[in-house]
Hints:
Layout: E1 6-7, H1 23-26, E2 39-40, H2 42-48, E3 50-56, E4 59-65, E5 74-79, E6 82-86, H3 94-102, E7 108-110, H4 120-127, E8 130-134, E9 148-151, E10 155-159, E11 162-166, E12 175-179, E13 184-186, E14 192-193, E15 200-201, H5 214-224, E16 231-233, E17 240-241, H6 245-260
Amino acid sequence: MSDLAICCTCGTQFGARDPDRCPVCEDARQWVPQDGQRWTTLDELRRDHENVIRDDAGFVGVGTKPSFAIGQRALLVPWHGTNVLWECVTLLDDDTARAVEERGGLGAIAVSHPHYYSAMVEWADRFDCAIHLHADDRQWIMRPSDRIELWTGEAKELGEGLTLVRCGGHFAGGQVLHSERDDALLSGDIVQVIPDREWVSFMYSYPNLIPLDEARVRGIVRALEPFSFERIVGAWWGRVVPRDGKAIVGRSAERYIGALHGQLPR
Length: 266
């Protein structure tokens, strides 16, 4: 619904027209701007924003211009003759829907963690598909919908070589998408692609620089142990570890844990 409230800071669409607060931004992993919470709607966003559709990391990416809220881009991952939308962006307009339909439409949506839930229900309603989220993050759903299918456990097979893996870490239900066909891990913020592509990183809060504890970092490595992957694809345009991804996750975790214990890298 184009008149529902959207948080300008995190991009989450609410199931109400006049919420008085954004729990996603009040959490320590986000922030409320110093001048207070601001709201918009899809109708307003469509007036001065548009989506860019272009190739990225071997997939088709969807990102908003000018950048809105956190600024992530989504990816179309081929699946059963259609696509899984991995991650989501808030803006959905007729031009975007038409471009996605021309590329096979959507058969499902999956989002790594609550900061990217954005307008996922709007997208699911438009394309008549399900949203796959981990049940451990159910409290962060700001617009409930029958489209949302909560799963439990450590991995969910979607078919055609696509698997959702609950890694936890940044959020309890933080999930990544493993693509056997693409030899890739689509990692969101759960495994963060950083400027030095020989490493990745992990955090409890990225904007507020709160580190993740050792147990949760080791939990991420343990969750990924059954899977092989050469590439790691992050949540923004061009954020790709091109090779040796599995080994990079392992050695990055050891470096990170060492730093937590005072063994700073040189």
